[in-house]
Every structure is written in structure tokens, then in C-alpha cells.
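quick one, two chains, predict together pls
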Amino acid sequence: MNQPWEELIVALDGKGLERLQQAAVSALSSLKRPTGPRSNITPTELHELIWSTPICTEDGNSLEQVLTEFGENVWSNSVVPFDPGCVAHLHPPTLLPSIVTELTVAVMNQSMDSWDQAPAATEVELHLMAWLASLMGMPLSGSGVMTSGGTASNLLGLTLARSFAGSQLGVDVLKRGNPEQAKHWRILCSDQAHFSIQRAAAQLGLGRDAVVTIPTSASGAMDIAALDRRISELEAQSATGIAIVGTAGTTDLGVIDPLDEIAERARSINAWFHVDAAVAGAYLISDQLKPMLKGIENADSVTIDFHKLWFQPFNASALVVKDVERFDLLRVKSNYLDRGDEIEGMTNLVGRSLDTSRRFDAAKVVAALRVLGRVSLGEMVERVVSLSSYAAAKIEASAQLVLLAKPTGAMCVFCAEGFTSDDLRRVQQSLLMRGEMVLGRTEIKGEAALKFTFMNPLATEEDIDRLIGLVINELQAS
Amino acid sequence: MNQPWEELIVALDGKGLERLQQAAVSALSSLKRPTGPRSNITPTELHELIWSTPICTEDGNSLEQVLTEFGENVWSNSVVPFDPGCVAHLHPPTLLPSIVTELTVAVMNQSMDSWDQAPAATEVELHLMAWLASLMGMPLSGSGVMTSGGTASNLLGLTLARSFAGSQLGVDVLKRGNPEQAKHWRILCSDQAHFSIQRAAAQLGLGRDAVVTIPTSASGAMDIAALDRRISELEAQSATGIAIVGTAGTTDLGVIDPLDEIAERARSINAWFHVDAAVAGAYLISDQLKPMLKGIENADSVTIDFHKLWFQPFNASALVVKDVERFDLLRVKSNYLDRGDEIEGMTNLVGRSLDTSRRFDAAKVVAALRVLGRVSLGEMVERVVSLSSYAAAKIEASAQLVLLAKPTGAMCVFCAEGFTSDDLRRVQQSLLMRGEMVLGRTEIKGEAALKFTFMNPLATEEDIDRLIGLVINELQAS
């Protein structure tokens, strides 16, 4: 029989705790994974399977039954980010301390918008943000806020940039809307920047066309001479660069723009300097890799994705600012939430966020950092970078594959001599459909490419040899 | 000794599963809650306590130690949404099936942006969205996407509205930016609409000033005669109402605007009709309450917050559209993610979202709906509404308190005869500081008010008597 709803509401008394623990153990036991990185079900079969179970019946079902269904239908047809063959995206295996902290977060269900919905959680998030800012070398005024992802962090950073540009003209953009001059506002980034920069410009009413992309040099990093030319051209056109975005870890090549030089250019034209470090932000934790991020301390705002190379479950991103007062550009009072007459020491984080209700995502990040410590986490990041170097060497040595760039991060892009874009697509899709590999596919300078993204520090050199072998076999079969 | 990082990466083999289960049980055991809805620690003491534990040491710590710290420092100083004295906000106690599903979500870590990061999860989300649209009475073309919260859902709905307005002029707003005419664009909503409507207008570059608020009648619902007058005035000023927002459940009073009549006005001026049903959307599940939402089926887009009266852990919100093709207004291709050359049947949800990487939040919602069933969930929603009616009757009968509106939902607002705004603030803050009650405080038509928000179906009439008694005592002591 099904449980009455009274027993399904969370409680922490003796019986409530016991029920939670039993259910948690059952839920974990019910997890079924495909043997490889994915099952071989087709999209159409999967659609039929999932849609054949009703979302909501009149009378419900036992928890055991529902967990079993999820195991058999959903999880066994999911991709497995902790399988060495899952190498398409920046899609990490997650960490034990983070996973179990998620469980406690769901029990306690704090909401980060106001202190009276998250008193201790607010301080944990503020502490994490201060630590992160200091890790970047920012002054004590550095702080930040958690967001749902890199796209949201970039949007928040550029929202602040737009308000900053408005404030220079004496216009409160959030109140009055984009001023007349906004049609001349430009956001500069490299041609390898993430598409969320364009999306942010679109959201902000500036339009994707307001994004000026600067060519990259052979390495894939922003070409500073080209940036200088573009800045001069904009001046000649009476256009205003309101923000320059430096990318710390491009999506396909993992390349880091020359942040110090961009910072200087931003300062010289009084533009906001935003760094999108979603991909390479985790280098901060490694003595070996951190020097690559030199200059990040000069950014006005920085995007960090904990759900990439910090191995956190989604969602866990942050927007860090060098000067916490910059959030004043954003703050709106509300009658019921952030009234401005709170008791000394109560921070309502809604004042620095584009969200209102918001999950306590900082908890899992802090739990993982506390358990692992800096040295271990740094080793994990270094490990995936070294796997990518290993793959690159193997690809360079292969007769069939062509390495497209020497990797600097966890990604490794390549194509195959004599094979077309369609061939590469077929290889990626066949491996995906048979459930043998979740391989990445992209374009590098307009040319089709395949991509490995190594996110699993437990993957071995033998795993990589096997993956490369699978790609070569599939090319030969195509 | 601390575990090597190799053992902290998720795995589902025998040893990995055992480690996960043990850690989950420990994590739940480590949860410490304050005896009441909150501890009595001051903000300053709490700051010092939380900041005294370093975020990240060189060598890490045992999982047990970190869980214990969280229990003692964080959870025991959190608010307790499942305590009957936690009545400030739309901040629910969560459900067992959802909580343990969160655990599995963190293990499997699907990312909803692309099919190859979430094949089954994509179908689950699509299925849930179709069910939700059909529950509203929308045609088969109805669908949607999960977002991080009501604020994000409202932003997405109004982003579509802005693109729709642009498309009428032949302008691709996302590409070109807000056109010249945008300075005459207006978003109409009632003066009780949530502040996220203003924030959306601000994000979109229209500015908060572009939001025209329509007065509400005595009940707190949008005054349709006033709407008609405002529409005529806008026409006379050559301004364009690009969207009308109907609120289904205002934040303070829970009032539902006359959706049918607003739908008709929106149609007549060719404006987008968005319904913010974050608060009252759960009425859809109750035969008794559902009729109050009549007209919602005519909306172009609807915000539903599962993390309110559907008792889901944060984050869980949805933006539902009547016609899935409307998402075409949003879609941007990318080289590495949503290329447009995928295998038949593969949906990349990034095409309808403002996010990229995104958590599988649909899982917990579906698990709860499947376990509870419609009847039980409906009873829970009806229960909190009846608790609010009970409180209203008690307040009306009291000599000291003044009921400010007859409740239609889970909220109940009141003030006290002869007490000032400052007195009410002191009452709310004292109860919060002593950890006796997390009470709401707001303004109703410019006057200070206290607010109960009953989110716990397990709360009893005796609990409410006690809470009212506490407020009266505190008023008398002030």
C-alpha cells in the first residue's frame, strides 16, 4: 500500500530520520547504469519508454516502485559521467561529500534570497565567495554570489557592466531602460568566447550584434594587436566598448586569453573587465596551473563554474566581483523581502542576485573543498590535463588522426586525414547510438572536428588508447 | 586519516555503492536542527562561527568531521521549513521521494542542455512539461522548460514576449537589440504583481519604468476597468503594451487576477499574455481549488513554481508555453552543442532555455507526483489553505489583531490596533532573534503588516493558536 502523505513530509525525529535513511539507501540501490557510457536505446524508443509511465496517477504508487521505475527507465538510459567513455562535454563525475551534502540540502531546504530563510547558509555562501575572491588575489572587498551556471554568471557580470556604463552617463539603466546611447554600446570578446556572451547581450536588449569578436592568434587566445585595432575602430565610429570579456578556458581548446593585457585595455577605455573562467577557474587550486590565470585578479567580475573542473553536481556556479559595492548597481528593495531595515549583520543575498528563491548550492562546494583539501583537488585537475596531453601525443603519433591544437586543458580536438565533416558526424553519432562512447563534435576555425573532454581523473592511459582505437575503427568502418 | 581522492569520486560498483550508502546515512545522522524554527544565535555570532572554519585546508579532513561541523555550525543554525513556526515565506517542507531523488540526481549528474548529456532526463522533462500544459487545459502544442525559479521563469516568459513584439515589426530583437520603438513598449501587470516582473523588464533593457501597474480592487485582484482605461491611455500615447501579466496568487494575499478577462484584453491588443502562477499554480492539482485558475489555458506562457506549494526542494520551477513553437523565438545554434544536425528524435533543451548546463530538477518533481498521486497532493494544498482560513477566523475574533484581507490561499496578513510599523518590525525581529517564530512582514497598500504563510500541511490548529498567542504576547511586551 502507498504511504499516507503525512509520512512523506520530511521530519528529523526518530521515525522521520529512519524513514529518510531507509529511503536514501533504497534510492541508491535502485540506481541502474548502462554498462558503458550510455545504453544503445534509440531516441524514439526512449521517448516511447519514458512517456509510457504516467506522470501522476490519482492514487500514487509506492516509493519502492517509483525508484525501481526510475532505475530501469531513466537511469539505465542516462549517460554516465563517471564512465571513462563519457568524453563529449565539460560534464564531470561528482564527489561523494558533495553528493551526500545535496541530500541534506534537500532536507533543510534553505532559500538563499533572505537571511530569515537561510541564516547560516548565507554566511557559508559569503565565506565561500570571499575565499574564492582571495584565491584569485583580489582585495578584501572581493565577494560574489552563487548562480545556476556559467551562462547565468556571465549574464550577471554583463548586467553589472551595463549598469556601470549607464552610471557613467548618469542613467539608472535598470530603472529607465537602455538609453539612446546603448545602440553604440559594444561588448568585446574573442571569437572563441562562449556563446553565452552573445546570449547575455541578447537578454540585455543590446542584441547579439553588439558583441564584437576579436580574432584569435594561432594558439586560440585573443590577439591583443587585433583588440587594439578594434578599440581604435570603435572610437572612430563613436561606439563605446562597455565591457571586454577575457576567456579563461575556451570551450573547445581550453585556451586562456592574455588577461593582464586585456585588463590594461579595459582600464584604458574605462570598460568593465569580465573574465569567463567557467572552464579554467579550477586551475586556481593547482600550484602548477594557477600561473596561467595571471591577471584574473584585475577583473571587475569573474565567472567560476564549480560544476565543471571542481567536480560538483549541477548547479554550482559563481560570479565573483572585485568590489562588493558593485552589487549596489543591481539592488532593488522589496516590501516583503529586502526591506533595508534588517537587524545589523543580516545580509539578504537577493540584493546581489538575478534570482529570488535559490538553492543552497554553496554547501556541496564547501563540503567537497573541506574534505578533499587543496592538494588533492589540485591533483585531480592536473590529472585530467595530463590525460589530455597524453591523448594529444597519441593522436599526433597516429597515422589516421590529425591533432588540431596542442591542448592546454582537459580538451583535445582532432580530425581525420581524408574524412569529411559528414564522416566525422557519422562516427560521433554511431558511437553514441551504440552506447560505446559519448564523444564531442565541434568546429575549429570553421572546420569539423571531434573532441575529447577528459573530466574523469580516474580514467587511465589504457582507457584513452581504447577510445582512440574505437574512433579509428569507426572511421575505417564508415 | 583522510580518504584518497580516488575513493571520493562517485562509483556504482559494489564498493562505490556501499561507500555512497554509508555516507548518505551518516550525512542524515549528522543533521542537527534547532529545537524551534531557528536557533537564537545573533547574526554577528553566526558570522563569527561560520567564518572560523576555513573553506579549504591544504590536506582536507575526514568526511565524518566535515558532516559533523555542518550539523553543529550550519544546520543547527538554519531555519526549519518543516517546523510549524516557520511561517514567513513561501518556503515549504520537502517530500521524502523528492529528497532521495535529489541524491540520485547528484550521482548521475545529467545536464539538461543537450540530449547527449541527458537522454532519458530530457524525455522526462518533456513529459512533465506536456503533462503540466495539459493539466492547465492547453492544447497538445503545449510544452515548457524547467528553470531555476519563478524569477527566471518570468524572465523567460517576458523574453519571449519581447521577441514576439519584435517579430511583429520584423525585427529579431535577440540579434539586433531592442529597436527604436522599444522605448514605447510597456508591460502591464497589477500593483500586486511580484517584483520579478520589474526585474525582468530591467534585465531586458526596457527598464522598470516600462512596467505599468494596474490598480487592484478591494480584493487585491487586478481591476479590469482600470486595465481598460490604461490600455486606452497607452494607445493615446502611442505606447504599445507588449505583454500583460496576470498574477495567479499574489505574494502577500494569494489573490488570483481575473485571467479570462485579461486574456481577452491581451488578445485585443495583440499582446503576449503571461501568467505568473508561481504561488497558486498548485491549485491545478486540487478539484476544489482548480476552478480559481480558470483562464490560465489561454496564456501564452505560465510560470509554475514546484518549490512552493508542490513541496519540492529548491530549485524547481517551470515556464510553460501554449505553443512549443514559440521557443523558436529564442533558439540559437552553437557549434558544439545544438548544431541542428542531430539524429531524429534528439531534443537539445538548450534551445528553449536561458541556461546552458542545467540540473535534472524534473526528476524530483516526477518522483513526488508518482508517489503521492493527485489526490494526496491536492489534499495537502487544500490543507494549508484551510489552515490559513482558520488563522484568519482566529485573528478576526481577537481583540488585538486586525485581519487585513480574507485569505484565498496559504497566506494571512494582519496588523494590530494601535501599533505602529516600528512595533510590528520589533515583534517580527524579536521572535526571529529568540528563535521562536520565523514570521513574515510586509506592506499592504502602503501599511505595515505581519504575515503568516502556512506551508506545512502537518501544522495543526493548536500550532496556529500558539503562534497567534506568541504574536499577541510579543506585542504586549513591546
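Residues 111-359 of chain B form a domain with the Aspartate Aminotransferase; domain 2 fold (CATH 3.40.640.10).
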